Write the structure tokens for this entry.
Amino acid sequence: MQLSPVMESFILHWGEMGSRWGLNRTVAQIYALLYVAGTPLPADEIAGTLKVARSNVSTSIRELQSWGLIARTHAIGDRRDHFVAETDLWTAAARVADARKRREIDPAIEALAGCLSDARTDDAIGKDAVARIRSMHDFLEAAGGWYEDVRELPQSKLETLMKMGAKVARLEARARKPKKKKKGKGRR
Amino acid sequence: MQLSPVMESFILHWGEMGSRWGLNRTVAQIYALLYVAGTPLPADEIAGTLKVARSNVSTSIRELQSWGLIARTHAIGDRRDHFVAETDLWTAAARVADARKRREIDPAIEALAGCLSDARTDDAIGKDAVARIRSMHDFLEAAGGWYEDVRELPQSKLETLMKMGAKVARLEARARKPKKKKKGKGRR
DNA sequence: TCCTTATTTCGGAATATTCTGAAACATCGT
DNA sequence: ACGATGTTTCAGAATATTCCGAAATAAGGA
């Protein structure tokens, strides 16, 4: 795959971004490459283009699949697996959110539940400390539950909901601080 | 600060969690400690309780402040700074979300905008590749804008909105898969 | 089966992050 | 000003992560 200067810079930037997001550089770059390429690429070509070890690509592809961000495809007359990026960004974002919930929120809830159950036999801990732990547990559980509910909405409904949110926000803002000149009606 | 077994395990778990969330262990543990303690603690006591270097506490406290998760307070007759955790979890979550947007989303938008402007003078890049980059840029910008709008809502409104979301989700779910005991009247 | 090609695993090198302890710095009271 | 107390900075040690390349494994076709 021949990269144009902008494609290259896009990929590099994504590598940066990825680190902030908890992916590692290679993983992020591979996604970026597949995303701009817009066409399925085999692993060795990815390795060649990004100049990383073939094995590194293998591992990273695994991770991307676990995030649900790329998919395997096959080309006729080619035994190699090819990979495509999910290009619908709503879908991709949802996949990332799902994965993060699963990895970050759910285990936390579980851990906190464990603490709470242990707390019953811990006579050195204060009542209020337990209460605080409980409220953190409940908070996470509520947020998680809400997410699950909303997560299953078809995209159209979701968009409607988001627009509603934004609209409410704008009305609210106007009501609360009518000092802004409010020249533009749009955001930003 | 004397830690009970459960408090200790809570803190340890939080340290774990923190790493998944992009904080480092010490930072996460300090927040956890202040959170369960529920009372302001001076830096050296934090260091003593968690058995980490005093300087490490100093750095971590800085970071926690930059996330807006703890605040300085003072006790009469004590020159030392004391720190308390934000215990309202709505607020804390909002602070984290703000910080993440600022660190993760905003720079990404900027980088993508840069790519797009460069793309005009890059004749080796395909139209469709540019289009894909643009759609990613627009997606992030839209999401960021939405977030900003909603972010400013008072908590009560936000909660209403979330409840609405969940309710819509439940109705929607019933309409779409009428196999639940409810005799589905709607089909799609 | 055996040869060829594609993929994965894995030990350790390269790199990046986190943490420590000492020293520098700041602030207050006297 | 000086000492006492508290805080921050910083270089390098400790640790963790990422990456490479060789070797093992799988899978297809003759």
User: Anything to note?
Assistant: The two ends of chain A are 38 Å apart (CA to CA). The beta strands of chain A are 41-42, 70-74, 81-85. Confidence is low (pLDDT under 50) at residues 184-188 of chain A. Residues 42-44, 54-55, 58-59, 62, 79-81 of chain A lie near DNA strand C (CB under 10 Å from a C1').
